[in-house]
Amino acid sequence: MRFSKAVVKYHIPIIIISLVLLFPSILGIMNTRINYDMLDYLPDNMDTVKGQEELLDDFGKGAFSFIVVEDMSTKDVAKLKTKIENVDHVETVLWYDSLLDTSIPMEILPDEIYDEFNTKNATMLAVFFDTATSADETMDSIREIRATAGKQCFVSGMSALVTDLKDLCEKEEPIYVALAVIFACAAMMLFLDGWMIPFVFLASIGVAILINLGTNVFFGEISYITKALSAVLQLAVTMDYSIFLWHSYNEQRDIREDKNEAMAIAIKETLASVLGSSITTVAGFIALCFMTFTLGRDLGIVMAKGVLLGVLSCVTLLPSLILVLDKQLHKTMHRSLIPDVHRIAEKMLKKFPVFLVIFVLLIPPALYGYTQTNDEVYYDMGQCLPEDIDYVIANSKLSNDFDIASTHMVLIDADTPNQDVRSMINEMEDVDGVKYVLGLESVLGSQVPEEILPDSVLNVVKSDKWELMLINSEYKVASDEVGEQIDSLNAILKKYDKGGMLIGEAPCMKDMIDTTDHDFKVVNAVSIIAIFVIIAVVEKSLSLPFILISLIELAIFINLGLPHYFGQSLPFIAPICISTIQLGATVDYAILMTTRYKKERIRGASKRDAVYTSITTSIPSIIVSGMGLFAATFGVALYSDIDIISSMCMLMARAAVVSMLCVIFILPALLMLFDKVIVKTTFDMKNVVKLGKNDVKVKEINTGVQ
């Protein structure tokens, strides 16, 4: 109560401090780097990651792109190549003439090498950069190359993807926040009892969001997914706390004339309730930190921090704003659109066995759809982008004109005998889907010694430690075919050099597939166990965690199973994140109803009356909370052209509705069915004793009265 009274007493300084904190928060946001490269989140101990570092350290080569140039003469292409070489951070440009020297006649080059770089109206250049794939400098170089070559130039590769993704995100992100605010505000206006209070909620939550985003500067950088989703998710999942405080304050205002006293009690009640509720949400986000694919840790920490800041804002800044605007808020109150639920509750209790049957019948199709959806996810980040964006067009040109869908790089020990390297190349070129292997040995053949090459040419593909080769593949990144191809190529490489490394976008994607498949199981298990323990402690029960988690897991299965029945494919990260977020964020609905049911049973109500009261008192809050979460995410899902953002927001919007419906209609039936089990296995219900067929009473131990 001391904390509550302090907030009330110092509500004006709290508002001032909150406003002052916005300035460093905005500076923090401006100085937090955003990472758009998903492959950066792979574990550091993987060969693909080590290989990228070796390539950069030993050759000075980081990012890699193919550039397709159309309708340009050989002379003009040569000029363009020179211009591209002069672009900052371009380390090497390889064309079919890159290995030529006056001492080497053009005629000795195999025809197939020339043909691989040229078609009737297009030619292809390979570009290496001296900076990493997603470095800001690399993205600037990509933009400059596009500007230099004009509309005849098409730049592919992971760096081009990252560049286009960044530009699109920066364009869309302000609209995400605007849509979330507008839709959430509209939902609260309809389902709450005031026209003005939604704006007060948004002001309080907005300050918490800005502080959360500003404190990310201490991490150095966050992923674009975290940046795009954190504001929307924080708004959606912390709105409940504001609603609870408002309802509690209004209840106290009805029985107390002093608004300060009413607010102090409301803060105390809200803090007690919100702490228990927020712990499950935080646990859901913390579970993401157990992913070895560290994007989960990135999103998990930022969102867990956001929830805690949301709770703090709810019990400090929001009460302060309400106290200042008390008169205006009460003048603008209106009747909520939520209908009277007493009749609905009566009908639900009369037909509760029907909802038990529905619960059982939903499990098989939901579980089947859920497992199928997990098998149908995609990993190619290019699929996240619109078809008319530059990167996607360039990849289509590369595939259609040159039959190249992905490119791998091989690092093999520079001391490996040339004969062994040629044998390895021959074996690799026999692997299904390999178009060709481009290296010194494959270009020069056995008749030309590499010693006659000038150092300027030799240093492009060979150092004291490594020799570099390119493998062009007909198989798309992240496809099953390229996965099998990479296994075969690695087996061949290791036969000739155990320390050799196969790197590039496709090998990295294969590592990401293997990593996230393991992560999905770990994160699911961690989130379920953590939330099980939290519910068991909060509710002091062994049976209630099973009942509540089973119900929300069914809602998760339905939500993640629907994409299979709709014929939709999800980005790989969506099911991992959504399963834990939905469990952590929406199990609160079930806890709210269950807590009220327990309270009524302990007071002496029959199980039927206890469930009836829990339905009538909980449904309005659950509807407001669920529709708030739906509204905050649905608009973003419809608008975003980035499929990974759109998919995750649509899943969150649907999660709110599905969980809300499951709790409202199925949970009361489960409480009716398992009442005896709950009473026997719940610590603080041990004094509930059976008196008759349906009636119970509480022993008054202290007075000895029954």
Report helical residue fraction: 55-70%
Quaternary state reads single chain
Strand residues, percent? 5-15%
Radius of gyration: 31 Å
- Total beta strand runs: 12
Shape category: elongated
Count up the helices.
Answer: 27
Return residue spans where pLDDT drops below 50 for at least 5 consecutive residues.
Answer: 101-107, 691-706
Could you walk me through the main structural features you see in this protein, from its secondary elements to its overall organization?
There is one protein chain. This protein is an alpha+beta fold. The protein is built from 27 helices and 12 strands. It has helices at residues 2-9, 11-30, 47-59, 74-85, 111-116, 136-149, 158-191, 197-215, 224-255, 259-287, 295-314, 317-324, 326-331, 342-350, 352-375, 390-402, 418-429, 440-444, 455-461, 480-496, 505-539, 544-565, 573-603, 607-639, 643-665, 667-673, 675-681, and strands at 33-35, 64-70, 90-94, 122-129, 153-155, 221-223, 406-413, 434-438, 466-473, 501-504, 688-690, 696-698. A hairpin with a 5-residue loop joins strand 11 (688-690) and strand 12.
